[in-house]
């Protein structure tokens, strides 16, 4: 079984990655989630600062590290990835715009959460996916990212569903990297 550590920016990702459903999904691929290391900011991925976060995961027993960060308003995924120190046992995934855009890609969970049938054609075009969810809902809800992550989990959100959306390539790439890790 591969022992995986995940480095991510924020609380939303941490909630999703530490969920029973995600851990169970990883186990089907023969991956054990050792720990999730939240950096608190995108800048922690650059200039060698990622090393301390990686080391925490390795000290906890991770044999492989997956780093997930948001593209935000940067223009190029490749350049964003190149700013991160490379290691042989590390994969890097950049979520187009924000991780929360993946919520827009899971039509089933989004419809359940917003209590009306919703389908978003291009989930990764929105700079502020939570604002788009509020617009789709027609009424305001709390913008707390960890609270929203919990609510989306309760609505059935899964990265697998987001990855199945034809216009959410970063979620699909994330699953591709997980499968690659599982096969090493």
Descriptive notes:
It is a single chain. This protein is of the alpha/beta class and 184 residues long. It folds into two domains: 2-98 and 168-182, Rossmann fold, CATH 3.40.50; 101-154, no CATH class. Helices cover 46% and strands 15% of the residues. The chain is built from ten helices and four strands; from the N terminus they run E-H-H-E-H-E-H-E-H-H-H-H-H-H. Strands 2-1-3-4 form a four-stranded parallel sheet, sandwiched between helices. The termini are close together. The mean pLDDT is 94.
Number of structural domains: 2
Distance between the termini: 10 Å
Q: Structural class, judged by helices and strands?
A: alpha/beta
Name the overall outline. globular
How large is the share of residues in beta strands? 15-25%
Order of helices and strands: EHHEHEHEHHHHHH
The count of strands amounts to 4
Oligomerization state of this entry? single chain
Question: What's the average pLDDT?
Answer: 94
Output the CATH topology of the largest domain: Rossmann fold
* Radius of gyration (Å): 16 Å
Low-confidence stretches: none
Corresponding CATH architecture of the largest domain:
3-Layer(aba) Sandwich
Any idea of the CATH class of the largest domain?
Alpha Beta
Going across the biggest sheet, name each strand in turn.
Answer: 2-1-3-4
Q: Provide a count of the helices.
A: 10
Largest beta-sheet details: 4 strands, parallel
Helix content: 40-55%
């Amino acid at each position: 079984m591969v022992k995986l550590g995940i480095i991510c920016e924020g609380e939303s990702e941490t909630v999703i990655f530490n969920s029973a459903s995600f851990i169970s999904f990883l186990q089907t691929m023969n991956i054990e989630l050792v720990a999730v290391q939240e950096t608190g900011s995108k800048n922690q991925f650059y200039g060698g600062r990622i090393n301390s976060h990686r080391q925490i995961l390795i000290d906890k027993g991770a044999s492989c590290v997956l780093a997930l960060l948001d593209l935000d308003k940067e223009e190029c995924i490749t350049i964003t990835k190149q700013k991160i120190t490379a290691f042989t046992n590390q994969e890097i995934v950049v979520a187009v715009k924000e991780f929360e855009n993946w919520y827009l890609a899971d039509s089933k969970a989004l419809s359940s959460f917003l209590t009306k049938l919703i389908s978003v054609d291009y989930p990764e075009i929105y700079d502020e996916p939570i604002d788009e969810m509020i617009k789709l809902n027609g009424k305001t809800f709390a913008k707390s990212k960890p609270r929203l992550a919990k609510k989306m989990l309760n609505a059935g959100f899964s990265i697998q569903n987001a990855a199945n959306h034809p216009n959410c390539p970063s979620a699909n790439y994330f699953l591709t990297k997980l499968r690659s890790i599982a096969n090493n």
